[in-house]
Amino acid sequence: MVLLLVAAWPFANFMYVNADVAFEFWHVVGYGAGTFVFFLAVFSAVKLIFRRKTSLHISLILCAFIIALFNFDNILLLGEEAGNIRQRYSGLVWVVLTILLMWAASRFANLSKAWAISVTAAAVMFVVPTVGYVVQELAYASQSAAPSSEPGISKPLAGVPEVRPNIYIIVPDSYPRADVLRSVYGFDNSKFEAQLRARGFKVSDKSYANYYTTFLSMSSMFNMEYHDKIMRPEGATANMLETLGAFGYSEKKHENVTIGNSNFVNALKSYGYKYVFSGVFHCDDSMDYCFARSWIFIPQNLSLLTPFDVIRSFAKWHFNWDISVPALMGTPLYLELPEIMASRPGMEISPFYMYAHLMLPHAPYRFHADCSEIKEEVFVRDAFVKDAIPYFTGQVECLNSQVIAAIDEIEAQDPGANIIVQADTGTIVLDAFHTPIAEWRDEQFEEAYAILSAVKLSDSCMDDIYDSYTPVNLTRIVLTCIDGVERPRLPDISYMVNGTWELEDGQPIGKVVHRDGP
Known about the structure:
Layout: H1 2-17, H2 25-49, H3 55-69, H4 72-81, H5 87-108, H6 114-142, E1 167-173, H7 178-185, H8 190-198, E2 202-203, H9 214-223, H10 240-244, H11 251-259, H12 263-270, E3 274-279, E4 289-292, H13 298-303, H14 308-314, E5 321-322, E6 327-328, E7 331-332, H15 337-343, E8 352-361, E9 379-380, H16 389-413, E10 418-422, H17 442-449, E11 453-456, H18 471-483, E12 493-495, E13 503-504, E14 507-508, E15 511-513
Parallel strand pairs: 1-8, 1-10, 3-4, 3-8
Antiparallel strand pairs: 2-11, 5-9, 6-7, 10-11, 12-15, 13-14
Helix pairs in contact: 1-2, 1-3, 1-6, 2-3, 3-5, 4-5, 9-11, 9-18
């Protein structure tokens, strides 16, 4: 009983802390059950070896280890507060405290009332976050998000058309523009672009992302504003997102804006739009309908509570990453576009806004060009390296056929729909993220920022689409098409270093201005 309650505690606490991001209850419970079974097996093995030790004795020592294991993140925070930001030193502190805690648990097991005290303490550990989670869920369920005011709009929105078109935004993750696919990947994407143009889309030849990471790019797009003072330090490496935290970047905050807590979504809701979300990321209370598999992030987020990464760095453990990872326990990791199209709500909920953020063509590599599943293991050093190019271009070709099929299905059922196919970022095969910005070559910038962008709006709005628009202005154009309220365009900028307007010797610092917009 003690082992069960203590093994379940970190998962109940995890749900409580993450209640606002709506992790699926049963998926977290499943991981908790797996943890309990694992430590139950450890308990049985230790019991066989140390037969003279009581079950309570062994249980308390294991429970002390579990408590220390899932408090590792707190030790890191304590180290940071004390001025020690080195994870390895904090790891040594954790080891010492873990040994002391296990020794204390062993001594405590000899007390006559140890059983009763242990059950009570374990029950409290488990019940408190569980009750907190339930309360949080009830509280979030009763909240209704009030639309926030749009930037640049000082008067109430007016002139809403009587018939409001449904809006579909399909975001393929890390999909470069055609010229980049040709020059970097040796892949000809002209057939796909011709298919889009034949269906009435404007495909931009000069489209760029505003930022270089998904959540920066998409949150600025949906808030219709640039971020202030978000920086990319010189020579950022694999810990880039951590480093960005010192300059105002919060993955959780920008993810929440990306998935629905944005000016764009709130404005549409004020006009009676339903919000349909699908693909990667997680469900959120801003959504009226949600189709996502957020459980794929649970193992990573839980592992951050433990010292796994520090142990790996001590051991200098470098391993080949199987970057195919087609499924977990037989279940596909990601919702693909055909599955999203089959499960989405029907036209009866119109008007609606559907945001489908796809993992393709980004790794993990799961599909060949004909969309058959990759059965072999794909061991490459990273998602975007030359060894992975055949797998990446295969997924591009597979996704192209899925996007065309989805567009045809949408237009057959919803001929007046506004449809946008807009990538979030480019790719980094040319190693841009490991190169100081001052040393970037033109082709590195183009690969990281030049993105696929194809738009089909109502006929009266198509003239507003110019060739070098960026995502931050695209949502302004779409909303203007919906309500007829003119929104001033921002300068179309790809930020390489920061989101300020400071100049140095009369030149912008680390940004590229696309000057041929309106």
